[in-house]
């Protein structure tokens, strides 16, 4: 406390210190300038004169991916920087063969405040998983191979990459093991369903590999995942079971291994991470681990979050699709107003999830309504939480009329034989809701079908109150039957569209300012800041 008091006179507790720091009281704090710049960027972006211009468009016959200012084409063989005034190629590698195809990828960024063994570790890199079970770490700027690890023989096909702890612990998951039809007809049994391999990143180190076995977890397992130290096992009847993954690693680890280590394991000799052996399966689960939690939910959909801890499920019957129950993780008690049902009549169901801003709130999205919900204490009942509305965002349907009975000019009464769906293409409908954490903005994409064309706009809302701050029209036609992804990253908007027959398109929008008036007024109000406009983009020098 004495150290805090000396640095922050008047701040007598941690909460007060953090509040003052968030408001920028300490000019020597390394994060102050960054926070000020992001606040300034948000103000500039929401100005009326600030526009988003379509600066680049490309089309591809293979999937297009986006990661932190980089666009990847041709199965990650081509990398394009979207940060420049106009997107430019960072690297272009020769076309790879089918045996070198990349199955999945994760962007790896340098941790702050840690000493790393190699200079290349301090720059962003791309972890990729190939079809032949190679795990590669590539330079994000040049595509150069920095590390190369062989995972396993062809009997185990690794296909998926995910984070257990973001930027710290990575999990590789195999495709589900299935015996050939001839083997099944011969009565051969397959007990191993999945393989999981776990790595610590930067420096990249092997933690262990384990099997998900029918004999331990049951015959009806359909999928598994690892997230935030929890092993999630899903079953065909909608059951979801959670286990402590760290406990499993510690309890069932037979022997630790390091990459590059020579070993003799179960009669096999090799080098860890080298061809032809790969990785040893050194975690052997011999008994059912202690169960943390289980619940039954439609389509195995369960989410955990909020404060105090709650979980969201849909009762495990098809007639309850679109009905969400919010229950206490402590004792499974349903929260007050914990049944959320928008009663939508639509082709696509509404969806719900915990707000990614770590506020503990919940976002519930329907065709024409977005509800942001929050937890409240129930008076005279400390064991139960109440779900209350924080704010709502409503689609613009002022011009839509859906009367069951209309009267013609001649006075004839006409009755409609059907009503429009809530997500009818001719009515404005929410398709995407996302959160930009650095600018603290809630973004929504709403679409309206006008004749043969669909028109979409990206709106930015205040994350605290839901107030509309900015609306950006997307110039390209939006077909609601196609698959779409929209990324909003600081001053960049990127739209990826997948059409039938594996046709992909990417549209890049960048923030530009039409006039210099706002620049001049801003520099007069803040004399210590200088604004410079290059090619329509705004730069700040402090």
UniProtKB/TrEMBL annotation:
Question: Could you state one GO biological process linked to this protein?
Answer: protein ubiquitination
The source's superkingdom equals Eukaryota
Q: Name one GO cellular component term.
A: Cul4-RING E3 ubiquitin ligase complex
Q: Name one Pfam family in it.
A: DCAF17
The name this protein goes by in its record: DCA17 factor
């Amino acid at each position: 406390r004495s150290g805090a008091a000396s640095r922050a006179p008047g701040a007598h507790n941690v909460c007060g210190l953090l509040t003052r720091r968030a408001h920028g009281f300490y000019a020597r704090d390394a994060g102050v300038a960054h926070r000020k710049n992001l606040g300034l960027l948000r103000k500039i972006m929401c100005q009326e004169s600030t526009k988003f211009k379509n600066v680049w468009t490309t089309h591809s016959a293979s999937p297009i991916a986006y990661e932190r200012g980089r666009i990847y084409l041709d199965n990650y063989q081509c990398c394009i920087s979207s940060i420049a005034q106009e997107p430019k190629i960072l690297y272009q590698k020769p076309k790879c063969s089918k045996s070198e195809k990349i199955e999945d990828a994760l962007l790896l960024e340098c941790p702050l405040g840690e000493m790393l063994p190699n200079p290349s570790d301090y720059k962003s890199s791309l972890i990729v998983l190939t079809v032949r079970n190679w795990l590669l770490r590539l330079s994000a700027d040049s595509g150069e191979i920095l590390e190369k690890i062989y995972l396993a023989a062809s009997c185990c096909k690794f296909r998926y990459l995910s984070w257990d702890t973001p930027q710290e612990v990575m999990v590789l998951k195999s495709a589900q093991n299935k015996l050939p039809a001839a083997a099944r007809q011969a009565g051969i049994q397959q007990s191993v369903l999945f393989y999981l391999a776990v790595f610590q990143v930067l420096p990249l180190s092997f933690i262990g590999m384990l099997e998900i076995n029918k004999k331990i977890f049951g015959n009806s397992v359909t999928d598994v995942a690892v997230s935030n130290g929890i092993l999630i096992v899903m079953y065909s009847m909608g059951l979801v079971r959670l286990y402590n993954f760290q406990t499993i690693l510690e309890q069932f680890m037979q022997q630790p291994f390091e990459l590059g280590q020579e070993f003799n394991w179960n009669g096999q000799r090799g080098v860890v991470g080298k061809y032809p052996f790969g990785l040893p399966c050194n975690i052997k689960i011999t008994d059912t681990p202690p169960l943390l939690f289980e619940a039954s939910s439609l389509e195995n959909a369960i989410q955990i979050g909020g404060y105090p801890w709650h979980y969201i499920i849909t009762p495990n019957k098809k007639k309850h699709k679109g009905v969400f129950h919010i229950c206490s993780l402590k004792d499974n008690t349903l929260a007050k107003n914990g049944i959320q049902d928008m009663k939508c009549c639509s082709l696509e169901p509404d969806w719900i999830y915990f707000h990614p801003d770590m506020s503990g709130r919940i976002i519930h999205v329907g065709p024409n309504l977005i509800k942001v919900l929050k937890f409240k204490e129930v008076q005279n009942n400390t064991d139960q939480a109440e779900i209350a509305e924080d704010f709502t965002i409503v689609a613009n349907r002022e011009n839509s009329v859906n009367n069951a009975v209309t009267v013609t000019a001649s006075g004839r009464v006409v009755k409609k034989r059907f009503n429009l769906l809530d997500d009818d293409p001719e009515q404005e409908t929410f398709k995407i809701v996302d959160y930009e954490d650095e600018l603290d903005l809630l973004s929504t994409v709403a679409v309206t079908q006008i004749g043969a064309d669909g028109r979409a706009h990206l709106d930015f809302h205040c994350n605290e109150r839901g107030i509309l701050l900015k609306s950006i029209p997307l110039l390209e036609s939006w077909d609601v039957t196609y698959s779409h992804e929209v990324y909003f990253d600081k001053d960049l908007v990127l739209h990826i569209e997948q059409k039938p027959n594996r046709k992909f398109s990417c549209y890049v929008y960048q923030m530009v300012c039409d006039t210099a008036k706002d620049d001049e007024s801003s520099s007069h109000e803040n004399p210590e800041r200088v604004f410079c406009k290059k090619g329509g983009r705004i730069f700040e020098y402090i």
